[in-house]
Amino acid sequence: xxxxxxxxxxxxxxxxxxxxxxxxxxxxxxxxxxxxxxxxxxxxxxxxxxxxxxxxxxxxxxxxxxxxxxxxxxxxxxxxxxxxxxxxxxxxxxxxxxxxxxxxxxxxxxxxxxxxxxxxxxxxxxxxxxxxxxxxxxxxxxxxxxxxxxxxxxxxxxxxxxxxxxxxxxxxxxxxxxxxxxxxxxxxxxxxxxxxxxxxxxxxxxxxxxxxxxxxxxxxxxxxxxxxxxxxxxxxxxxxxxxxxxxxxxxxxxxxxxxxxxxxxxxxxxxxxxxxxxxxxxxxxxxxxxxxxxxxxxxxxxxxxxxxxxxxxxxxxxxxxxxxxxxxxxxxxxxxxxxxxxxxxxxxxxxxxxxxxxxxxxxxxxxxxxxxxxxxxxxxxxxxxxxxxxxxxxxxxxxxxxxxxxxxxxxxxxxxxxxxxxxxxxxxxxxxxxxxxxxxxxxxxxxxxxxxxxxxxxxxxxxxxxxxxxxxxxxxxxxxxxxxxxxxxxxxxxxxxxxxxxxxxxxxxxxxxxxxxxxxxxxxxxxxxxxxxxxxxxxxxxxxxxxxxxxxxxxxxxxxxxxxxxxxxxxxxxxxxxxxxxxxxxxxxxxxxxxxxxxxxxxxxxxxxxxxxxxxxxxxxxxxxxxxxxxxxxxxxxxxxxxxxxxxxxxxxxxx
Length: 656
Ligand code: ATP
Ligand code: MG
Known about the structure:
Layout: E1 13-14, H1 27-32, H2 38-50, H3 52-59, E2 71-76, E3 79-84, E4 87-88, H4 90-94, E5 107-112, E6 118-122, H5 123-139, E7 147-151, H6 157-168, E8 171-174, H7 181-191, E9 195-199, E10 202-204, E11 207-209, H8 211-218, E12 227-231, E13 245-247, H9 248-251, E14 264-265, E15 269-274, E16 284-288, H10 290-303, E17 311-314, H11 321-333, E18 337-341, H12 352-360, E19 364-367, H13 369-378, H14 381-384, E20 393-396, H15 403-413, E21 420-422, E22 457-460, E23 473-477, E24 487-488, H16 492-500, E25 507-515, E26 521-526, E27 531-533, E28 536-538, H17 540-548, E29 553-563, E30 567-576, H18 584-598, E31 606-609, H19 623-632, H20 645-655
Parallel strand pairs: 1-28, 5-18, 7-8, 7-9, 8-15, 9-12, 12-13, 17-18, 17-19, 19-20, 20-21, 30-31
Antiparallel strand pairs: 2-3, 4-14, 5-6, 10-11, 15-16, 16-24, 22-23, 23-25, 25-26, 27-28, 29-30
Adenosine-5'-triphosphate binds at residues 275-280, 282, 321, 397-400, 422-424, 426-427, 448, 509-511, 523, 526, 618, 620.
């Protein structure tokens, strides 16, 4: 059978979504925010592109440098060196710097475990813990440049371990605590880590995730690992191998409370982090110190309009880049108070998040569309039970947010008061690239709006031509930025090929997008997921948003199935709102609904109702697996980051 293969060399991506709603920034934000108007944004933006070196040099004053850099940027496409000649320390910037002001006694981390215990660490206390663990690492033979794997639940020892690594110049590789022993083993081996930091276990939805047991299994095939340090979290029995395994709490008793920070080169490797694996096998993204820290710190201040009184909560697990940049490095570099929660959003009840917000008086809340769609499905009675009046700003990250989910977030959680920042970025970009500024940018549901100062984005065709307003194409970044990835760990060739060769001379994001007449960016989905229907290339996000705008639909994933006539047939996997039941009638109604919303071209050929969609452990829909399933009924691709295998099993059975 010959089919028209989805080639990306010729046509652009066709945009079919229409969204007219627009929300100006609330007045109180516009009065007092860090950036207060579009004029101010435009001015800063223009300066950042016209005189980038002056701009970034001024911004870099935000950090504490031991030695000032002599050159802002050395750019040899695709390799950048930022703040060349400068030395600094990320842990010093995130901790020590706050000790000579009143912030010394400010809460750095307010932590709540799933069972309900609360621990608060002031900056002074955080300093002591970071120093002690840094001394432990040194005693364990870890020094500058060594890689340390961190496989932990969301407990304070996780950021402490990261900052301790940063303090002595060790490069951390955090592996999400929900991954299997095999996934951990592969990541340890890829980076040749010398030490693993873990815990006996962690709590998730009332049960224990047994981390140490997974580590024991992984360490049977990791020749580089010499030692393992274990935090006692759940207290359940674990096997401790003599000479290899040590308890955290015992080690820290025997070391000094002070550890001088290493003076590290601006380009010193801070960490390696593997991507989510939504589109393929995860890649080890390398970030370095100066540029990364600067841009995460700066964007935290701008995008979240951070102030000293805030209680800031980013719900991401630290195992993802969002947790690295916006739970740890960005907020702590700003001296913020960070709320950190160990467990599930629906434990013991579906209102745990709202209860946390009410009790801790959270002011800034940053979460993912997948979570928002779950909240919608669970019903608004849960948030309505709680006083959410402390909230002043809401954020979204990880996937395109469907306009209807955006509206729900705004009305039900934000009570129409709180601006929403829909932040587009990637593990590779290190920091937020495209996002509203809450005191300046009028928002449109579903759009990440405009690039931040210092970021030059564009929409291009495969052959590098910029496209006009509302024409879909490839989202690219056209000049280097400080927090950009430096390479793929151990595979510079892949770095060149994947990011810098698809479209000549620019950074290729892998996402499809369009830019509207106001210069606003709308991410239409991943380029790998684009569906080619009768020569028209459709982004998945738009068709999915049309489906989700139907009252019966909770979530949708759309993929193409090879079709002799059309090229691709559109297959939609749909989960329904609580209380709705699948029927032939509803199926037809949904098809009509899509036609009405965006046109006949996008009419699904097939709608499959399902209880759940396959997702990565960071909550993103894995369309590539659905695509395989729709085409052949079997899945061969990499599934190491899949959240729940039973979802695939069920989908397969439903098909038979
Ligand atoms: P892999 O690269 O391994 O397939 P991944 O792309 O899911 O995994 P991440 O770096 O965690 O790994 O995610 C970045 C991607 O998430 C972006 O390229 C984009 O597709 C999507 N994304 C993130 N934020 C947004 C947003 N605000 N709007 C639309 N898409 C977003
Ligand atoms: Mg990606």
